[in-house]
Amino acid sequence: MTKLAGASTPSFSVDGKTAIITGAGSGINLAFASLLLSRNCNVVIADLTLRPEAEQLIAKHESIETSPRVVFVRTDVTSWEDLNRMFDQTLSLFGEFHILCPGAGVYEPPWSNFWHPPGSQASKDEADRDRYALLDINITHPIRATQLALSHWLHPTEPNTIPVTPDNPRRVIHISSVAGQMPNIVCPMYGASKFAITGFVRCLGPLEEAIGVRVNAVAPGLILTPLWTDNPEKLMLVDQDKDGWATPEEVALAMFRCLEEPDLQGGTVLEVVRNSTRKVETLNDPGPDHALGDGSLASKNDKGVEQILKSLQQKETWGP
């Protein structure tokens, strides 16, 4: 299964392909879905709910006569049964898929948050359930979805489907974060999940040369999405005049580049902050420079730190 040394990397175009995107009911993943559709790529949107803008996009492209076409498959990414059904429905509708983006994620919500331990009032993580919802969404789901995609691509069950090879390539694009490059006490579980995604992608980098599956990631900074704007407790950490937002469309373009550009080989992580997209080095990377106001860290982050330190003294949260 090893590709010959010195062999060229086949080109990859999204034109005429089919992509599965989890979490595409809003935000970055919705922008990515829209970009792929504009490049003649079918899209399966897998999410629990759709924002109005996602419903509008689907309405434009959902007809069976439309090309490219978009389909919504309601999916709870924490359910492995739902993930299997997501792939099964995609294969039933399109016969094949070529791109996977397991992009659904959450940013340290009160209901699954290190600073709201299981059993505390704000947390929906039950003290006796042996798991954190945030980690199920941010780590377990992208790992399991990648496994399922590889299983199909290597050993397809649909008739006349050619297995993946370096000459018949496929793509996986993950969403990490600048929080996976620099520590932040405000969001330790989110940070851990994004460090994990970056490490996971790095580990799977050799798959492109070996079997033709490129696994890459983007690492956004502050992005103007509902993940921030719909959460006042997070938005208060941002100085709207000082901090620099990047847009979901900028991140989507970086994701698209990871699919098509030949020099962004497997294991690549592209950081996306205000007015800048750069390749993150595996070793000795200088990291994002939030001192320049590039949107890699909210400028009022210290307020979040103060709140956390006060909450540690609250017995109803941290007591026995």
TrEMBL record:
One of its GO terms (cellular component) is cytoplasm. Keywords: NADP, Oxidoreductase. The keyword Lyase does not apply. Pfam families: adh_short (PF00106). This is NAD(P)-binding protein. One of its GO terms (biological process) is secondary metabolite biosynthetic process. The keyword Cell division does not apply. PANTHER family: 15-HYDROXYPROSTAGLANDIN DEHYDROGENASE [NAD(+)]. Residues 280-292 have a biased composition (Basic and acidic residues). Signal peptide: none annotated. Belongs to the short-chain dehydrogenases/reductases (SDR) family. One of its GO terms (molecular function) is oxidoreductase activity, acting on the CH-OH group of donors, NAD or NADP as acceptor. InterPro entries: NAD(P)-bd_dom_sf, Sc_DH/Rdtase_CS, SDR_fam.
